[in-house]
Amino acid sequence: MIPKMIRVGQSRLLEVDNRVVVPAKTHLRIIVTSADVLHSWAVPSLGVKCDLCTWSFKSTSILVQREGVYYGQCSEICGTNHAFMPIVVEVLIGKIMVLG
After folding, report:
1. Which structural domains are found in the chain, ordered by start?
2. What is the distance between the alpha carbons of residues 84 and 15, in angstroms, rounded to a whole number?
């Protein structure tokens, strides 16, 4: 749930309900797709940007060395709600448990 109050140092309109949680120091392959319009999955602080067309799949690889929270957004003008498409990647050290 997105908090009602913004704390000092917290980014406004960049928080999400469900973060992408990944392990640190692990080679990762990210696969993105778009079912409606052009999109661009970008997290600049991780050095990753993946542009894709409608009904296409693209993959990219990353290796994150440091634990932390990294923010990104769709960087393609894709429609009315383009400004409200934040991405949050949380990188953790150690084992990550997947809950289903």
Report:
1. 20-92 (2.60.40.420)
2. 10
Place of tokens 């602080």: 45
Q: Give the torsion sign (CA, 35, 37, 38, 41).
A: negative
Calpha distance 32→91 (Å, rounded): 18
Q: How far is CA 64 from CA 71, 72, 89, in A?
A: 14, 15, 10
- Among residues 35, 40, 31, which one has the least CA distance to residue 77? 40
What pTM does this model have?
Answer: 0.77
Give per-residue pLDDT as tens, 49-95. 988 888 888 899 999 999 999 999 888 777 777 667 889 999 998 77
Question: Which residues fall within 8 angstroms of residue 35, CB to CB, at 6 or more apart?
Answer: 54, 55
The pair phi, psi for residue 79, each rounded to 5°, is: 150, -165
